[in-house]
Amino acid sequence: MKMNNTWDADSYRDNFSFVPKYGEDVLKLLTVGPGSKVVDLGCGNGSLTDRLQSLGYQVMGIDASPAMLEIARKEYPNISFQQADALSFQLDTPADAIFSNAVFHWIDADKQETLLRNVSRNLRPGGELVCEFGGYGCGEAVHSTLEELFREHKRTYKKIVFFPTIGQYAPLIEKCGMRVEYAILFDRPTPQKGTIKDWIRMFDLKPFDGIPEEETDEIINEAEERLRSRLFIDGTWYVDYVRIRLRARKL
């Protein structure tokens, strides 16, 4: 089972570098010492995997996207990268920590328990999960506007992301054999290098599957105009991100 999106890896690297940049703060939640085995789950182009290695960890990057891994292997040839599914990857030896940034929200709600059980299975006892992903209300201005426009076009908008509250997610973690040690949900309006249209085309094009290109362009253009008064601030587009950041420990 792959994540609910496909990636233009070059555009992601060139225009959406804020994703790994914000992940730098999540690294601070790791408590394992130098030399520990740390897996970067959903490593993308490998930039945060490289940062983990620079902190003294023994690292491996795992991702489902061949295009992302092609860039990662080219940029960081001294790091081991593996193509695998977050729901089913298997490590030869359990990790001291599994780190993940901006990944879990791409996995269907009904697959989250499978994800967390597999994470737990691949951690040593006492090992930790450190991650950040979209939380309740993330990108809601964009999603609600697109939902409205789809209705006007006699279409059904299907949100492809899972944005839980801490109250929804913490019990899942505990059910899968881990204890939540730290969790926070916070607003993080995020400036974009490009336009809101660029963001939709990178992160939210899946709901347009089966819609003719001309109509897709029309809806996206209309969305940008409706969102301009809310998300275009002092010459820069923002997306109304909400994040969950947490650390959990395997029992």
Written overview of the protein:
- With 251 residues, this protein is of the alpha/beta class.
- The protein has a domain at 9-136 and 161-192 and 241-250: Vaccinia Virus protein VP39 (Rossmann fold), CATH 3.40.50.
- 37% of the residues lie in helices and 26% in strands.
- The chain is built from nine helices and eight strands.
- It has helices at 9-15, 18-26, 47-54, 66-75, 112-121, 140-152, 166-175, 196-203, 213-231, and strands at 37-41, 58-63, 80-83, 95-101, 123-134, 178-191, 232-233, 236-250.
- Strands 1, 2, 3, 4, 5, 6, 7 and 8 form an eight-stranded mixed sheet that branches.
- A hairpin with a 2-residue loop joins strand 7 and strand 8.
- Helix 6 crosses helix 9.
- The longest helix is centred in the last third of the chain and has 19 residues, at 213-231.
SSE inventory with pairings:
Elements lengths: L8 H7 L2 H9 L10 E5 L5 H8 L3 E6 L2 H10 L4 E4 L11 E7 L10 H10 L1 E12 L5 H13 L13 H10 L2 E14 L4 H8 L9 H19 E2 L2 E15 L1
Parallel strand pairs: 1-2, 1-4, 2-3, 4-5
Antiparallel strand pairs: 5-8, 6-8, 7-8
Helix pairs in contact: 6-9
Summarize, please:
It is built from nine helices and eight strands. With 251 residues, it is α/β, with parallel strands linked by helices.
